[in-house]
Amino acid sequence: MDIFLFILFASIAVFCAVNVVVQTHPITSALSLVGVMGALAVLYLLLGAEFIAAAQIVVYAGAIMVLFVFVIMLLNAGGEAKSAGRSQMVRWLGIPLFTIFIGLLSYIVQRSVPAGPGVSFGQFTGGTPRDVGRLLFTQYLLPFEATSVLVLIAILGAVVLARKEIE
Amino acid sequence: MNFFLLSLLKAAVVAGALLFTLAYLQWVERKVIAHIQIRMGPSRVGPHGLLQPVADIIKLLTKEDLIPPYVNKFFYMFAPFLAITLALTSIAVIPFGPEIEIFGVRTRMQLADLNIGVLFILGISSVGVYGIVLAGWSSNNKYALLGGLRSSAQMISYELPMALAIVAPLLLANTLSLGELVEKQGGAFLGVVPRWHVFQMPFPQVVSLIVFLIAGFAETNRIPFDLPEAENELVAGFHTEYSSMKFASFFMAEYANMITICSMATVLFLGGWQPLWPAALGSSYVPSLLFAGAAAVMIYHGLHPARPKDRYTLPAAGVVFLLIAGVFLLPPLRPFLIPVFWFASKTGFLLFVFIWVRGTLPRFRYDQLMRFAWGFLFPVAMLNLLATALVVALVSR
Q1: Dihedral angle at the C-alpha atoms of B149, B153, B159, B162, nearest 10 degrees?
Q2: What's the whole-model pTM score?
Q3: How does the average pLDDT of chain B come out, rounded?
Q4: Region A1-80: CATH code
Q5: Whole-angstrom Cα distance, residue B102 to residue A109?
Q6: How many CB atoms lie within 10 A of CB A121?
Q7: Would you give the distance in Å from CA B54 to the centre of its chain?
Q8: pLDDT score for A150
Q9: Neighboring chain B residues of A69 at a CB cutoff of 8 Å
Q10: Which of A106, B49, B262, B381 could form a disulfide with B42 if both were Cys (CB 3.0 to 4.6 A apart)?
Q11: Where are the beta strands (DSSP E) in chain B?
Q12: Which residues of A touch B149 (CB under 8 A)?
């Protein structure tokens, strides 16, 4: 069951991720990204990290991507025209070179990461909101607070930049 | 019993009840609004217009499903589907009653008791914006687009005070599972006042409840926050270009969201299926008494009829109500019917408040709406949360 769900949602994630790049219309790309987020949330659930799954949906799919879509709609960005002048070299060598690049990359990653016990589904139990909260406010308190101050500074910066000039 | 079979059975019961409530909620709304405005409301189809929902469904199903030539076809079809699916999903985690035993099978009166139930509902409602946004954008119509934009801005703004209002009772209960939330609200202070979150310290949580309900009005695009479909500015807002069942999907999604918000408020603040006062003081006889009282009134008016036909219809309805009162007294059904009665009556009251507000308040202006969310509701919810957190931290030490 776990494996079946993993394969299903992993392929949805990959399909949507490819779709983000392939689509020419910004709205379609943005919605494909929402699909990626949703599929990733299910993968987190399979790993037993419920809180992260819920946060993924609420924060990324629900809040951030809605803002993206909102901005795209406000700007009324149209579909991108396909680039006409593509050189012969790109047409013939593009896909083989890309395949070689991905192969090399995966080889290097596989070599440099030590072989450990694989991730197993449903085994991990530290993903409930209670566990995450306890860790955040005890062991990782300093990084947590530092991140929130950083985010606050970013918000202040955005407000200052977006504010109208006062004469 | 087989887990899958049991889940299927429960899902069928819940879905049936939900769709029935959806259809009749709309009838109730039309009747209540009509009486507020001193009109009759639907009265032609069946007695008191009781068959009006059936007529509406037939009408909507048989209307021509028009797809304008200038729309973005895929997203135009996808948007109502998304809206209705997400709106109907959230009912899965709402608990209607405690764990019960029927025919030797123990089960919760809830489809799924997730330990992240509250977050699940928040997630579903935040993703639900896409249905409306996409409908507005894909229609290729300036009114629809404006409606969609307004709606997304409004829902994002009101999600914040709503989430903050939800956190306060969560701090008191120390859990995210909706079933556990209700169980922790059992019992009573001084033996009389129920231990619901509205009545709990610091200064009873009425503030969170009110903030939650106000944000709920905005999240469901209801008057006084129905800017996305303000008909005198935007025709019909985001669903201007929709007809037939696609229009009905948006309509049903709005009502389903209303039911979700009201049941969430019941579970979070009003103690879910817990009775208004302890069962030791006779609260479990309330449904029987209410129905018997209604039956007595009907039979009395049947014996002193104002119109000739009342001589037959009112006593017949009275006998039916007496039978219902009797059903609530049957020992094998009681542990299951009485919690459902309390849950349904609280949710029903909140739904009535939604309709009541629609009949009472005018619509906000758009800048007022945004100023209200960020300038008033958000700070109030924040202060309330801080006060609650402080008290919880001091008491739990």
Answers
A1: -110
A2: 0.83
A3: 83
A4: 1.20.120.1200
A5: 56
A6: 15
A7: 21
A8: 95
A9: 130, 133, 137, 152
A10: B49
A11: 97-102, 105-109, 188-189, 193-194
A12: 70, 73-74
* Cα separation, B228 vs B239, whole angstroms: 9
For B123, which residue in chain A has the nearest alpha carbon?
A58
Mark out the alpha helices in chain A (DSSP H runs). 2-22, 26-47, 50-55, 65-75, 88-112, 129-137, 141-162
Nearest Cα residue in chain A from B171: A130
* Residue whose pair of structure tokens reads 């202040």 in the numeric block: A156
Phi-psi region of B221 (alpha: psi -120 to 50; beta: other; left: phi over 0): left
Residue scoring higher pLDDT (B298 or B199): B298
Residues recorded for chain A: 167
Of A27, A51, A70, Cβ closest to residue B116 = A51
Is B170 near chain A, with CB under 8 Å? Answer: no
Are the C-beta atoms of residues B212 and B162 closer than 8 Å to each other? yes
Domain ranges of chain A: 1-80, 82-114, 137-167
For residue A128 the two structure tokens come to 């409930």
Cβ–Cβ < 8 Å for B230, B363: yes
Mapping DSSP to helix (H, G, I), strand (E, B) and coil, where does residue B105 land? strand
Tokens for B245, please give them. 């069942």
Please give the Cα distance from A129 to A55 (Å, whole number): 10
Going by C-alpha positions, the residue among B116, B264, B101, B267 that lies closest to residue B184 is B267
Residue-wise pLDDT tens digits, A19-29 = 888 877 888 88
Q: State how far the alpha carbon of B208 is from the alpha carbons of A148, B77, B137, B380, in Å.
A: 25, 38, 34, 9
How confident is the model over B265-294, as pLDDT tens digits?
Answer: 988 888 878 887 777 777 778 888 888 888
